[in-house]
Amino acid sequence: MRTSEGRLVGGLVRFLLASDYRVRLEVPNMGQSVDIVATRGRWATFIEVKATDWKRALRQCRSHECVADYVCVAIGTRSVSTALLDAARGRGYGVLHCLAEEEQCMWVVKPRLNKKKWPPQRKQLGKDLKAISHER
Fold it and tell me: Whose C-alpha in 11, 35, 70, 73 is 20 to 30 A from the C-alpha of 4?
């Protein structure tokens, strides 16, 4: 049975909240939407969630580099592809593996601090996050 992205997001939100993150869903960013923005202190982690298509997630993550402090892919496949792990490590992205049946998420690769941020856009993100009411 294929796991839905929505189910993965639900499990991931619970995982992040238990790790003391503030969580916002479907956050607008430069004409796109980020599946999850998790903040802790002044740090913003952008997470793209995919049930299977991790290559698409990597393409989406590239556009988040000018704003996010940390960029991550959350994947709901039975196992995590070595190609995904290699690509994520090469870009400094984190990888979260979410097992919907067990309602469990775990870090497979921790993200590195993103040095490609564009300060004006990062400042705008801070303002935008304060205005979002759909926080969890």
Answer: 70
